[in-house]
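Input (structure):
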């Protein structure tokens, strides 16, 4: 089957890990790292929108993404 175009853009990305902080949302984390909520959920096997403070999330960022955006 063909690869999802959004996923294809993220195949050559650097893996980083992010610790969830109080008040974090998937949308905020996705914007900060320049990715999508759908991909964060896929990479971390998250069903729904529930995260725990202190949870470690895999996030893949572009090698040329530059400075991360403030939350």
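Output (sequence):
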């Amino acid at each position: 089957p063909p690869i999802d175009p959004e996923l294809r853009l993220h195949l050559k990305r650097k893996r980083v890990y992010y610790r969830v902080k109080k008040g974090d949302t998937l949308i905020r984390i996705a914007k900060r790292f320049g990715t999508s909520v759908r991909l964060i959920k896929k990479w971390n096997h998250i069903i729904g929108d529930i995260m725990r403070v202190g949870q470690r999330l895999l996030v893949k960022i572009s090698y040329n993404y530059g400075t991360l955006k403030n939350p």
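Notes: DSSP finds three helices and two strands in the chain. The chain has a mean pLDDT of 81.
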